[in-house]
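Entry for magnesium ion complex. Fields follow.
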Amino acid sequence: MPRVHVMPDALASQVAAGEVVERPASVVKELVENSLDAGAKELRVESQRGGTALIKVSDDGCGMDREDAVLSLERHATSKLRDKEGLTTITTLGFRGEALPSIASVSRFSLTTCEHGMIAGTKIVVEGGKLCDVRDAGCPPGTTVEVRDLFYNLPARRKFLRSEATEAAHIDYQVRLHALACPGTRVICRKEGRVTFDVAATSDRRVRIGDLTGRQNLGKLWEVPHLEHPGMTVSGYLLPPAEARKSRRGQYLFLNGRPVEDQVVWRALAEAYRGTLVSGRHPGAWLWLEMDPLLVDVNVHPSKREVRFHRSAELRALILEAVEGALRGEGKGSPGSPGRGGSQESGGTEENPSIGGSSSGSQRVEEEAEPAISGPESSSAVSSLREEPSFPPGPQAWRAEVQEELPREEEQSGEPSFRVLGVLEGRYLLLEASDGLVLLEGEAARERILFENFLEGAKQATAESQGLLVPLLLELEPRDADVVLRNAENFRESGMEVEPFGGVTVQLRSVPVLLSAADPRSLLLDLVDELVHSAEGRSGRVLTFEKFAGELARVGARGERCRVESAQGLLDQLFACDLPYCTPGGRPTLVQFSSSELRRKFGR
Ligand code: ADP
Ligand code: MG
């Protein structure tokens, strides 16, 4: 067995780790990139406790022989870049040779690898940058990297991490991002031992988009015509303006297969959509950019998330032309048709039959995509890509049904056109839609509106609160007083000032403006009740603000009555939300009975 020795410059690696390994998701990113660079056709990513306990990435790629495997853990060891010239023509995801040694320097690390056709592989164990063991290992061809106890030797960094749920959400997002970038690779993602998604390899990017973001999106995708300018091409898919979101989370850009962020592209995209979007909204987009490596510098950011384009004016023109082309094709077909009609911009309907092709294509895709997103696990996973990382678990399976149909009739203002017909039982608004009847549940709608307002208020640090004329003194049970004080920061961020007032008495001085009509006493007591019975309340932990806001929204929305006079206002507020179709807990806010369903019921 080779001699065990201390890796040189372990310290230098830890320093580099500061740049490369920001959080568990960055480890996942580096390992996944290595696997893809190694030609993986199947990729497994597993994590436990937000990646702090375990991150494991396995691939069936080319593997390494023993010498290379040991070398790969040396700083600046890379098989991908040999000289300065190479840097200008990079086509692999990695090239800095920093990731493996950096990760190994801040964790308990093992690498098991075997080349194809070899009988035995190699296992290397490193702890905190110290090489502990190199030995033969029986393993399938490919490479598995296990990273345990990330930052165990850097307590300060470990403390800096967010909650496990948040870190887990970042990991999930990262894997999905790469899974979108490489449809040809099967990707299996596991969390705490359970499969969160498993997407089959496909040659069709639409299928991958559907598998990962929800079948309901497939029928709405507009194809971006494949367009070429010297040295660069673009292709991809867009969602119609009515689907636009408040955040950029629905926008994906892949440059030569690498997920990147780029302002030039985002601005060009926004410009192309100008006039069709409510301000502050960002259209959903999946864009694949292939570019001569000479025209782009990918080595400007340690994690390579940002890049520098040498000919950004041409890039802007290319994106504008392509996206405008896609948008012009809109509305040529019948309004309810799932595919987009019209295709003059894609040039030549003979070779490129995008009318028939895209809609029948989408049909096929929907069928293929079905098994992958039909399980409860994957349908909640589907929604989480569209959420901010720390959101509560997303909507359940119903969402695919409701969302599939409703937005199709939306107009370019971003709000579906509804005619208010009346109110049922004080609970529901009856709305006439372009396709049948829609019921809006007042409580659910209000809950969504309150929730997003609380989050926005906290983000902007402008939670609007209304002082009570007479502060309210409430004597609580010790357990209840305790939960209030523990969550004092959450209360404050939502615009509800509560202070200890000696013993088990608390003083309520203000309430959120949005809830100023509520009885402050029952508002506080109901909320405390929910907090105490939440999982966090029971285990004595503090809720994240999102969870807190969710509870407050639920309590605040209770008993919401619908009235015809205020219906339009409610609709406007609801459709100003990022996710108008469900409550934070995933219940629907709107339910549709399509014309065809109604006709069926009447035996027509
Ligand atoms: P980089 O990816 O920047 O080259 P890394 O530190 O991430 O640097 O990896 C070092 C080298 O180890 C890579 O260049 C590659 O040759 C090898 N390597 C890493 N991961 C794998 C893998 N999963 N399969 C095969 N080779 C790998
Ligand atoms: Mg790498």
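NOTE: The pocket of magnesium ion (ligand 2) is lined by residues 30, 33-34, 94, 99 (CB under 6 Å).
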